[in-house]
Each structure stands twice: as structure tokens, then as C-alpha cells.
Amino acid sequence: MSPVSIPRIVQVRRNILKRNDEVARALRLRFAEAGVFVVSLVSSPGSGKTAFLEKTLTLLNNGAHHPAALVGDLATGNDAARLARSGAPVRQITTGTLCHLEAAMVENALADWSLPDLDFLFIENVGNLVCPSSFDLGESLRIVLLSVTEGEDKPLKYPPIFHGADLALVTKLDLADAVEFDGAAAARNIHSVAPEMPILYVSSKSGAGMNDWLDRLLALRARSTTSATTEP
Amino acid sequence: MSPVSIPRIVQVRRNILKRNDEVARALRLRFAEAGVFVVSLVSSPGSGKTAFLEKTLTLLNNGAHHPAALVGDLATGNDAARLARSGAPVRQITTGTLCHLEAAMVENALADWSLPDLDFLFIENVGNLVCPSSFDLGESLRIVLLSVTEGEDKPLKYPPIFHGADLALVTKLDLADAVEFDGAAAARNIHSVAPEMPILYVSSKSGAGMNDWLDRLLALRARSTTSATTEP
Question: Are residues A12 and B9, on separate chains, in Cβ contact within 8 Å?
């Protein structure tokens, strides 16, 4: 064995990631050309991704906007059925035993959709605080959710997924008192792995924080559209 | 390409799993010879594995029993520090970017422990509802935890981890009313992927269900010791 040889498993993993990055780069270009702002959601299972997304889709799907969603799970089409109640186009991606979405799955799921007819696309990843970290999906904004019931320590225990996100969303705020949630500790832990990351606080149940979230989302999309059209 | 060739990534994965099974088999034999009953815990992050385990260790570590624990996380030694408050020997395994424990990590972590001095060993896996499924750790009992705050649908969305466990533990029972937990739906979903799996309900906070759990644990160990000694 040569001293610089790479173990086979590492090499295979690198090839997968390289291929994924190529597909993701092509997707990102397509999304920009079509004027679709793409947001992905990652979190542990049961952090409230689907509830938050259903609320977001319902609020956006008011005639002024044209959102759509892809949702990943190992099994079942339950989440797509829940999200479809918003009236937005939704498609389930089932991954079998895979613990994350890959860019090629997103590409396949979009194959017969007309991207220029959309302005927002949400991609709900498989509930997992580890696997999705390394896989770019071509999104413009990656949100990591942390529910108040999970414990304030999760950012310290799963640094890559917090480090790789653009925005942290603390969910299930309505349960904060019941679980004696320490918001200052959660923010401190998030910022220790992702300094200056913006943090929003929401309750999909009560609706608290949803207007702030929508304002920020619309502003982000407006900014991305402006920068895309002013670039040569 | 021959029609029966196996893709390289599948082959690498099979080799890893085969090697893991060999180490796990050797561990299981060592545990049986030493009279240690080994329980592993799997769940999504924040389901309450550490709180439940701290309570269990504290209740067992009363002079009559000699429990110990290994705990896996990507980063930090926080959980080991929490569990050590019970007075039991505890060791943290940090996995870096890996989303599960493997049998070899357990073997290494135990290297300088005298197994015959213990009667219970608990192995808390990395919080993940996917990755730990395929990795045997040599345990006698694998418990999957589902907190009431995660949603009753999780067994349907993550079938392998529920299917591969021996016992389901519904945790955070004290929050059941606040989240309108539907216990019948949760049990139905667990049994649809793991028919007849025993389900226990606990709250580490209030202590509810902990005596039932300890009774069952002691009975399981007694049965395993008896069957080990009566076998030729």
C-alpha cells in the first residue's frame, strides 16, 4: 500500500459527494434562472418541519405567491398528504433506507414540474441531525430546526448540521414553559458552532413568530432576485 | 459488466456490516460469559435517552447492582458527565461525523473494564432514527424510545429502527396532555411495523413507569442468566 493511498470507503464517499455537488450546482443554476427561491429544512425527526412547512405553504399560497414542496422520508407518503392540504403542489420522495436526500433525487422529483411557474420551493429533508449535512441540494437557504422539547444541547452534540445551515428556527415555542426551555442557553449553543447565525422562534400551533418568518423569507427572495438580475 | 456484479458502494457497505457482525458476535459471547446483561438505547435526538438512563443507573446503583454505561455522540462528553452523576462507571464514545455506534467502538471502550464486576451495561447510541438500525452491538435487549412530543407517526416513517428493536419505550409521558398525544395511534403504528412489541410508558421527570421498567429489566436479566446456565 502506498503511503498516500486513500482507504476505499473514504474514496467511495468522496466520489458520491463530488457527484452530488455537480448535480446540486446545476440545480442551483436552474433555480436561479427560473426565479425560484429554494429553502431546505433539516432537523431531528419530530422537530416540527412538516407542521411549520404546512403553515408556511398555506400562508404563501394566497394567490400572490406560488410555492411548492418536496418532502423526504424513508417510508410513507403521509407528509406529502399533510402538506397538500395547503393547496400547493407537493411531491413525496421516499428514500428506503437512506438517511438523507441527494441532489439527484430532487432533480428526478422535479422532472415534470415547470419551475418558472413557481416562486418558492421548499425541500423537507429526512428527519436526521447527521446525514443531510454533507449533501448540497442546490438550495439558497438551509434552515435547521430545533424544537424546545429536544434540549438546548443539540447544537453542541451535532455541530456539522448547525454549522452548515443559514438560519436556525426554534420550534414548538408554545411548549417552552412546560419543558423549562432555556432560550439563552440554546442561542449560546447555536452561536458557539455557528457564530452570528440568525435565530427565529416560532410556534406552528399558535402561529407565534410566523409573520416575522414570512417577512424575512420574502425579503431574502427579493434580495436574491435583485442580485441575480443586476449581475452581468 | 457481468449481470451479477454488485455495485461497489453496496459491496463496501456489506463488508463493513459483515465485519461489524463478527465483532458483535464475539462481544455477545464475552457479555454472556461475564454475566453482564447489555441493553442498548436508540432514538431520535432529544427523545430522552440520557435522562431515562440517568434515572435507571441511579435506581440500579444501590449496592445490590453494578451497572455501567457507554454513551455515543458525534461531539462533547456532556452525556457521560450527566450519567456519571449516578455514581456508575460511564464512558463517552465520540464518533466525529458518524451517525451510529459500531461494535468495534464498544469493544475499544470496554478494553480496560472488568466485565465480571458488572451486571448491567447500557449503551446509549447516537441520536438517530436511521443509521443505528444495521449495526449489532452485541446487546441482549435493544430499546427504541419515542417521546410523546415527536408525533405518533414516527414508527411508520422509520420502520427499520422500530422493526429491529425488542422493546418500545414511550417517554416524556408528563407532556402527553400538552401535546395531545394519541397513545392508541402510537401503539397501533409501533405494532404495524413491529407486531406484538412490548411498549412501556415512562416519564423520567415524574418517575412514572420507572418501577415497571426496572421490574421488567431485572426479570429479563434473571431469565437470560438462567437460560445461559441451563444450556449445555
Answer: yes
